[in-house]
Amino acid sequence: MIIPFSRESFVNIQMDAHQGSHPFIGQDNSSTLPDRTILHDTSDLHVKRKRKIEEAQIAREVEANENRICKAVEKENILRRKAEVRMRKEMERFDRERRKEEERLMREQQREEERLLRE
């Protein structure tokens, strides 16, 4: 929001500048004009607004980074779970194949024993 300055306040600031005082610093004498107080408050408000905007922007950036990190962690968790499931299924398949092979060997050994007994 831009607050328009009157020509009078601009002239008063220039006059004060020629006298060697800073226009935004209040003076102790009673000649301090309300215009300068408004200018001082306006600059304070501008700084405060700017700071609030920057803080809000930083907060949004922090939140966005946290969201990205959460998504990355969740993605890693999903991939880890998929890998665990794949590994478990593979181990189960190896166990089934091992048991089948053991059963086949047992049957073969049993047949061999039966054949030897018949002879």
UniProtKB/TrEMBL annotation:
Residues 89-119 are annotated as: Disordered. InterPro entries: RLT1-3. This is Uncharacterized protein. It comes from Eucalyptus globulus (Tasmanian blue gum).
